[in-house]
Amino acid sequence: MSSVNNRPLTPAELEAFGNELDALRARHVATLGDADARYIRKVEAAVRWIGVAGRVVLYVAAFSPLFAPVLLWPLGILGALLLGLSKILENMELAHNVMHGQYDWMGDPALQGKTYEWDIAGTSESWRKTHNFSHHTYTNVRGMDDDIGYGLLRIFPEQRWHPFFLFQPLIAIIFALYFQWGIAIQDLRLGRLFLGKATVGQLWKQSAPVRRKVTKQLLKDYVLFPALAGPFFLTVVLGNLVANGMRNVWTYVVIFCGHFTADAETFPRECVQDESRGHWYLRQLRGSSNLTGGKWMHILTGNLSHQIEHHFYPDVPANRYAAMAVEVRQICERYGQHYNTGSMARQFGQVVWRILRHSLPSKPAARPALVAEAAH
User: Fold this and answer.
1) Does residue 369 form part of some domain?
2) How far is CA 154 from the centre of its chain?
3) Residue 1 lies inside a defined structural domain of this protein
4) Taking the model in full, what pTM does it have?
5) pLDDT for 90-106, tens place per residue?
6) Which class for 264: exposed (0-12), middle (13-18), buried (19 or more C-beta within 10 A)?
7) Is 5 among the domain residues?
């Protein structure tokens, strides 16, 4: 149970809170320019060349039994790590942020949010629907944000308990290892089939874009690139498998740390009715968690270590979040609002506790009402 206390705001304070956060966004958007463009192009280049290096090292490892068998494992591990790093950077700092439209202002066709396609089993179009729209509009609103447990996990006591959730500690591990596949099928809402709300034929037709993307990804990572190694294909297959697994687990940990810590809250549908800008900011704040760390932590998380700032400003280039976070935290402190941040170990420990605790029956603890509601 969280011991967080958020000071009730008057209607005037609530409006001022929203206005200050809007003004902060406006100041940063007004100064976007060459430095931001250079940054994302450096990330794009890093993704490309680290990926090339990883694949080259994997091929050298694959053929090493012909000239230096002792190099097989060291080079195989190094190649997989480099390829995994490239995939993490592509997913987190490049694709995720580009697809939010953070760099549309550049006019670069390769960095347009509506057309970018990422290196993952799920389609970008599906992600823009489930994540950019549903999740960011209705963050942690029960029945409207499908990211609450992803239909597999009971992470908050407000979710109805079923005996199925007794298995969720194991399910959570499997979900982490295959996270990209969970994202790929999220918008299909497979639960409708078991509830009789959709037929197999309907889901098969709806899944056509996903099936095409999955086929492309499987052929690329487990057929085409391994085939280039000829009879030594197995090393390349394993390297790709490890790289994808690294990306899956890292993405899972970062996303779960950003939304499911002890202080994170969920909200009823009613809270979004006639929601003011200040009220929206408060809901984003109370449903989000940040991670402390240095420059590389921020880059490798796609700056989702600043999850609060990302939920406030999803279309502002993420390389701005570190600077914005200083002011966001000051604003929150002035208005008596808890700014949820901590180390990855601390935050993920709380996530694990939630997964274990709420696999068993549990009842919601009393939470302070959203400020806007309390202020009415």
Assistant:
1) no
2) 18
3) no
4) 0.94
5) 999 999 999 999 999 99
6) buried
7) no
